[in-house]
Write a structure and sequence with these properties.
The structure is a homodimer of 350-residue chains.
Chain A: H1 3-6, H2 9-25, H3 31-37, H4 44-56, E1 60-61, E2 70-71, H5 73-83, H6 91-101, H7 107-122, E3 125-129, E4 138-145, E5 150-157, E6 161-168, H8 175-189, H9 194-206, H10 214-227, E7 236-239, H11 253-265, H12 267-278, E8 283-286, E9 298-307, E10 310-320, H13 325-343
Antiparallel strand pairs in A: 1-2, 3-7, 3-10, 4-5, 5-6, 8-9, 9-10
The first copy, chain A, binds a DNA duplex (30 and 30 nucleotides) through helix 4.
Chain lengths: 350, 350
DNA sequence: TATTAGCACTTTAACATGGAGAGTGCTAAA
DNA sequence: TTTAGCACTCTCCATGTTAAAGTGCTAATA
């Protein structure tokens, strides 16, 4: 079978040119056109032999007998992993991103802008997860009495963001009592990360026997209510989905519909993006690699971004598998870095 | 020309059957099929004459010489205004809506559910505006110091909803001072509607000369910052957009793209929905009537919903002009009423 | 006078036909 | 090992044909 043996320098060079050509033209590429466009001086016939091998290895595929070849997901994968020559962004392209992401205070706005920028520069769909709250630190918590046993819990994180949640307490508290509880919690937990706080609270609840007075007990149980599974709110911002409508790969309405439904339900996208959180740097899912049928004809190029040197989110681009990876990868990479920079607390204090 | 004269009972009856038939079949309807399906016992030839008149009046239109007729927007309008026989919902259909909208506390969740229900029962796109804040009453305002001159303003409206905003004050305030300011504002404005509060504040700011002490002055100027143009946040919840992809009217990708872009930008939709706020009850925009090119092949059926007998929002359904109005109208109507009921403070207080 | 039958005409949709073009696989020669 | 040559396959496109559906007009009819 000599499979491995066949994958010599020449075959790889040929596969590279084939993928490049298919990406730029969108048509199955045949032996004649490859013979002209590759550096190698080979006749179409020779190229046909090589292509036949590539097909046997599952790297390319022929839509029908007399069409050229098209890369498979596996072919793209090999291309991206070992053949791709990334084209760094030029000055102008950098500037667009840089200007777009500077001078914005609000976290939500920055994230939104990043997503929009990604979709604009790539003409595909841009996606950015909201920064994980788990890792941000609690600055301040406050309780406000509403009616009866309803209490509004407000917590400020990271200097910037304010979140609130209505909790139902077991009994009615006076404003003073609530203030006292908040003071207690602030004195202990302020500055710690939300996930740490959550853990600590659960721990404290379990050893109630400890020498805690009623007030402290109340405070802890309220904090428990305030922080309980709030992380479900994991979310992302998607922009430029409509760009995808222009790709012939998605001209089929059922396919398009499924894709947009997946966008709307968010679940699968979140799951997919979560996978990218684990590793640092640029990651790529090509076609069926994602594991979701809906994305069979799509690729996802992502990178992580950080605050205080901790990875807090993912951003990326969704487009057809036939995308200009050599350009998309640096775009995603650079945007991730710029977003990190934009979100990090400025060193120059006011 | 005898235009008016021609629009006798018979022509109207024929137009009605034509529209009904076109809505259910989706094919241009010809004289033969009309002759069979209308109650009138008329030969195709006679019907052709009548249709010719209808065409002259701009009520129907022929795609090409040997196709049947299709209603125009004007034709649909006449149909909807004077010919339509609305089919009230049966028990089962009512139940779906009723069960879907009961037992939910959170305003946002209710609105979301309503939108989803609308899209599910109609198999088109459902839309619900968030209740206008202008008309809700302020219950409580609170200020929380952040760093330096940044202050977090929190206001609770309507018992239910909590909003917050970071404001930048001119100088630094102590927690006590902020508390004092909040107390002052609460004593004066609590219970009034947000728009009233906003007006009153602007008025107070203008006659600064009055016998106000510095604390009151500070309070008012902070309130001004907290409430300034926050109404831009007018928003709506759209569901089931993807349902629209199944309609042949929207098979054209450029059209579909424009429509989805309009959904994403929200501006035009908000504007359109705002128009519906003015009148009470069900309103309908058919095709080009909306004034937005994107909606030329769509119709919008809306109704208003209320809290405390005040109209606070609009909900509706977006679909192709060729929709089953006799069913959609009651669906929208009933959903609006159920939503009003769900949002109104329960009379049985805890 | 209003309605209808009849007829010629138009348009579309569906299907068959027949190259042209592009590309392949295989074989045999270089 | 590479290449030229050739038969073969498949798509695309233009063309033609036919059937079905519908129209407008005219003349007959009630």
């Amino acid at each position: 079978m000599a499979n491995k043996q066949k994958l010599n320098e020449r075959s790889l060079q040929l596969l590279k040119t084939l993928v490049e050509r298919y990406i730029s033209e969108g048509q199955p590429v045949g032996s004649r056109s490859l013979s002209k466009n590759s550096q190698l001086q080979l006749s179409p016939a020779t190229i046909r032999n090589v292509m036949s091998d590539l097909e046997e290895l599952g790297l390319v595929h022929s839509p029908h007998t007399s069409a050229g070849r098209v890369p498979t997901a596996k072919g793209y994968r090999l291309f991206v992993d070992s053949l791709l020559t990334v084209k760094p962004l030029d000055k102008e392209e950098m500037d667009v991103l840089q200007h777009g992401l500077e001078n914005d205070e609000d976290e939500a706005k920055i994230v939104d802008k990043a997503s929009r920028l990604l979709s604009e520069v790539t003409q595909m769909a841009g996606v950015v997860t909201l920064p994980r709250r788990e890792l941000v630190s609690l600055r301040h918590i406050e309780f406000l009495p509403l009616s009866n046993t309803r209490v509004l819990a407000i917590f400020v994180t990271n200097e910037q963001e304010v979140h609130n949640k209505i909790i139902h307490t077991s009994k009615q508290f006076s404003t003073a009592k609530l203030q006292e509880a908040a003071n207690y919690l602030n004195s202990i937990y302020s500055g710690q990360s939300l996930s740490d706080v959550r853990q600590a609270i659960v721990a404290e609840m379990q050893q109630t026997q400890k020498q805690m007075n009623q007030a402290m007990l109340d405070a802890v149980s309220m904090a428990h209510l305030a922080f309980e599974n709030d992380q479900v709110k994991e979310d992302f911002v998607l922009s430029g989905e409509t760009n995808l409508m222009d790709f012939s790969e998605l001209a089929d309405m059922t396919l398009l519909r499924q894709l947009f439904e997946a966008f709307g339900q968010k679940r699968s996208i979140i799951h997919l993006l979560d996978k990218c959180l684990e590793a640092d740097g640029v990651q790529i899912f090509i076609g069926e690699e994602s594991g979701y049928d809906v994305f069979d004809c799509c690729s996802l190029v992502t990178s992580t971004y950080s605050v205080n040197d901790q990875i807090v989110g993912v951003l990326g681009v969704i487009g057809p598998t036939r995308m200009a990876y050599e350009k998309i990868i640096p775009y995603v990479d650079v945007t991730a870095k710029l977003l990190s920079a934009a979100l990090n607390p400025k060193t120059v204090a006011p």
